[in-house]
Amino acid sequence: MKKISLTIMFFLSLFLVTGCSNDDNKVVSNGHKVNTSKMQVMHCSRKASANTGVEVELKYDLYYTGEDLNILHSEEKVISASDESLDLYEDAYKKIHENYEGLEYYDAKVDRGDTTVISDITINYEKIDVEKLLEIEGEEDNIIENGKAKVEKWLTLAKKFGTECEDEE
Question: Residue 25: which pLDDT band, with cuts at 50, 70 and 90?
Answer without folding.
Answer: low
